[in-house]
Amino acid sequence: MNLDAIEPLQALGIQLLTATDTEVQFRVPAQGNFNDKGTVFAGSQYSGLVIAGWYLASHWAQSQQQGEKVAIKDCQVSYPAAAMSDLTVTARFIERPDRRPSGHWRAQIRVEARDETNQVTATLIGDYRILTS
Hints:
A hairpin with a 5-residue loop joins β6 (105-114) and β7. The longest helix has 22 residues, at 42-63. This protein has one domain: Hotdog Thioesterase (Thiol Ester Dehydrase, Chain A, Roll), CATH 3.10.129. By secondary structure, the protein is of the alpha+beta class. It has helices at residues 7-12, 42-63; strands at residues 15-19, 23-28, 70-78, 87-93, 98-99, 105-114, 120-130. Strands 1, 2, 3, 4, 5, 6 and 7 form a seven-stranded antiparallel sheet that branches. It is 21% helix and 38% strand.
């Protein structure tokens, strides 16, 4: 997984903090991502959420020798509180990935963004697919 090839990471300043087979964490900086209201732009948060889920599914797929072709199929996002500081974005599996009738894998992932006070500012429930060749 070549994070350097994902242009929005560089443009938004999003950085990988930690990664295991069951959890990944990214940092979304507030600086450079503020909107006109002085809060972190929802689009920047969304990018961090989607990328964290993608990275978790990709990391799992690579560890299981399933390749690296991962795409988000569907998601639900909510923004329960305004974000005004750097965010820690954490992705975890809702349940273990399972193989679909098509042969592809489904990974259902919950991703949360928390501010410096540990308040949840955004949540994504993502339905990712690990595409087999």
